Amino acid sequence: MAQWITIEETAEKYGFEKEYVWILIEMREITVCYERPGVDIIDDGSVQDFINRNKHGLTLMYIEKLERFCIDKSKLCSIYMSLLGKQDKEIGMYEETKSQCDVLQKKCLEQYKWIRKLEQELSLEQTNCRKCWLRRICLKIWRY
């Protein structure tokens, strides 16, 4: 029967850093159980097996696995960098589009004001007010 201990207990018991324990988990050098929500537990026997395999120094197989792990992480970082660069470009495009929309909205509002003013003047032209000297005052009152 396997004895299960937490990552923190493993690090303390064997004198490892917690980050190193996570690396061993990712390299599949030790066995971990993710069944408990929020708590990752490790098979203590798998840690002891790892230590026994490498007690006389690191083995060639372990070094090759570690090298492969580092290469894979490096490729993953490159992919993330590429995605972040593309995301930055996309954000820039959205910001440019937004600024263009803001400019168009201002122009539309200006045109709306001109159209409203024209409508008022045309409506006054169709009445007897067009010859009235109070026409300008009426226009100002109508605007509000």
Q: What does this protein structure show overall?
A:
With 144 residues, the protein is mainly alpha-helical. It has 5 helices and 3 strands. The chain has helices at residues 7-14, 18-26, 44-53, 60-125, 135-143, and strands spanning 4-6, 32-33, 41-43. It has a 3-stranded antiparallel β-sheet. Helix 4 packs antiparallel against helix 5 (135-143). The chain is rod-shaped. The mean pLDDT is 84.
Outline of the structure:
By secondary structure, this protein is mostly helical.
Write the layout of secondary structure elements.
Layout: E1 4-6, H1 7-14, H2 18-26, E2 32-33, E3 41-43, H3 44-53, H4 60-125, H5 135-143
Antiparallel strand pairs: 1-3, 2-3
Helix pairs in contact: 1-2, 4-5
| Coarse structural class | mainly alpha
DSSP E strands, number: 3
The main sheet comes to: 3 strands, antiparallel
Percent of residues in β-strands: 5-15%
Percent in helix: over 70%
Radius of gyration: 37 Å
Query: Which assembly state applies to the chains in this document?
Result: single chain
- So what's the overall shape? rod-shaped
DSSP helical segment count:
5
User: Span from first to last CA?
Assistant: 86 Å
Low-confidence stretches: none
**Average residue-wise pLDDT:** 84
Spatial arrangement of strands, main beta sheet: 1-3-2
Order of helices and strands: EHHEEHHH
